[in-house]
């Protein structure tokens, strides 16, 4: 079941346009003996093989290096390591702290959708959006939040009154993960759930 903030996948073209720049494959060495073979026509496999280490999976540091070298921020400033950690946690279904190929491919599709949404509101192509534009972007993703909640989000993710793309992604991941968590617990769709304290911490600290 789809839910707000997840975004569409679109075409996962490894040469997609990012803030007016061509997103080229990262210049990294990779691959490992015995990697499973994927269709050679799948452009994401080359990306994944270039980034993954000897274990054939991608950790947060490797993902950060990949996104930084790809210039996904609109420049080549380091992509947030903390955002990379929470993106991996979002898709880490086997709880290894790393991503396999299918998880990496899914993440790339989600990032593509979020980037498109971000660029829609970054009209001056500064690589940032203003607080009111972030509110518009959240509304466009299907969320209906109170002004108090929106204000809390802006305070959490803005820097000097601007929101950068990696912080925008962190916001999207958090909204998606918490919404998914809530909906899984709210099986009767009553609009509220009950947590015991330790359970609440386990769920939220992992995001």
TrEMBL record:
<dbReference type="GO" id="GO:0012505">
    <property type="term" value="C:endomembrane system"/>
</dbReference>
<keyword id="KW-0479">Metal-binding</keyword>
<feature type="domain" description="EF-hand">
    <location>
        <begin position="79"/>
        <end position="114"/>
    </location>
</feature>
<dbReference type="InterPro" id="IPR018247">
    <property type="entry name" value="EF_Hand_1_Ca_BS"/>
</dbReference>
<dbReference type="InterPro" id="IPR002048">
    <property type="entry name" value="EF_hand_dom"/>
</dbReference>
<keyword id="KW-0677">Repeat</keyword>
<feature type="domain" description="EF-hand">
    <location>
        <begin position="118"/>
        <end position="144"/>
    </location>
</feature>
<dbReference type="Pfam" id="PF13833">
    <property type="entry name" value="EF-hand_8"/>
</dbReference>
<keyword id="KW-0472">Membrane</keyword>
<keyword id="KW-0963">Cytoplasm</keyword>
<dbReference type="InterPro" id="IPR011992">
    <property type="entry name" value="EF-hand-dom_pair"/>
</dbReference>
<protein>
    <recommendedName>
        <fullName>EF-hand domain-containing protein</fullName>
    </recommendedName>
</protein>
<dbReference type="GO" id="GO:0005737">
    <property type="term" value="C:cytoplasm"/>
</dbReference>
<dbReference type="GO" id="GO:0005509">
    <property type="term" value="F:calcium ion binding"/>
</dbReference>
<keyword id="KW-0106">Calcium</keyword>
């Amino acid at each position: 079941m789809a839910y707000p903030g997840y975004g569409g996948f679109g075409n996962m073209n490894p040469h997609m346009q990012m803030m007016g720049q061509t997103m080229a494959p990262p210049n990294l060495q990779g691959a490992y003996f015995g990697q499973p073979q994927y269709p050679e026509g799948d452009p994401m496999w080359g990306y994944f093989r270039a980034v993954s280490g000897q274990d054939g999976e991608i950790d947060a540091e490797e993902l950060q290096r990949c996104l930084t070298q790809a210039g996904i921020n609109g420049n080549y400033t380091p992509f947030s390591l903390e955002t990379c950690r929470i993106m991996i946690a979002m898709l880490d279904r086997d709880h290894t702290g790393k991503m396999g190929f299918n998880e990496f491919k899914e993440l790339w599709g989600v990032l593509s959708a979020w980037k498109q949404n971000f660029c829609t509101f970054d009209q001056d192509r500064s690589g940032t959006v203003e607080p009111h534009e972030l509110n518009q972007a959240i509304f466009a993703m299907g969320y209906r939040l109170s002004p108090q909640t929106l204000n809390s989000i802006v305070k959490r993710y803005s820097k000097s009154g601007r929101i950068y793309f990696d912080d925008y992604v962190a916001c999207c991941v958090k909204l998606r993960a918490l919404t998914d968590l809530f909906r899984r617990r709210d099986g009767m769709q009553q609009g509220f759930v009950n947590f015991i304290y330790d359970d609440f911490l386990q769920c939220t600290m992992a995001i």
